UniProtKB/TrEMBL annotation:
The keyword Hydrolase applies. InterPro entries: Bact_Sigma-Reg, PPM-type-like_dom_sf, PPM-type_phosphatase-like_dom. One of its GO terms (molecular function) is phosphatase activity. Keywords: Hydrolase. Residues 15-148 form the PPM-type phosphatase domain. It comes from Streptomyces shenzhenensis. Residues 166-198 are annotated as: Disordered. This is Protein phosphatase. The lineage of its organism: Bacteria, Bacillati, Actinomycetota, Actinomycetes, Kitasatosporales.
Amino acid sequence: HRYLTQFPEADEEAQEHFITALLLEIPDHSPVARMTVCGHPTPLLIRHGTVTAVASPHTAPPLGTWELGPGARTAHAFSFLAGDTLLLYTDGVMEARDPTRTFYPLEERVAHYAKSNPTALVHHVQQDLLTHTHGALGDDAALLAIQRSHTASLSGLHLGDLLHGASRHGRAHDRYEQAPAPPAPPAAAHPARQDRRG
């Protein structure tokens, strides 16, 4: 962004100097995930065999589109429970077409493999994508599956509070009871000096 601002180029060249981004935070001790979207496709959430697109009400422009201004980058929180899987992907996946120019129906196809483990899910979607395009992808395509194994024990924590806090402040204020700090070790004893004079 700083480079593009200080060294403007021809419009056709500047159009190529941007990148989409998705910042995903998955705390160990909270049943939520938080994402910040900068022009990037949002992930698919798989829960109990059902696939849902995770929509973000706060989407900023891609990084490097300096003529559009910096934009507000706000984190959006959503529930991410034990056993849930997130499938992240690049636009090369959703824009892939078959010989008849039909786009790859990602969400529909992922539903067929929704009960697969993350490794198998990525493998199945990859092979299905190559079948759809007859092996001719028009753009780079990447897939990443993340599964929540468990969350740490929570005390006095409500999911609704986390989501509300994240929506209002851009991040959730996690509230959980911490174990009391161990008592400080006793001060080391120093033997009294003996006066050897005399």
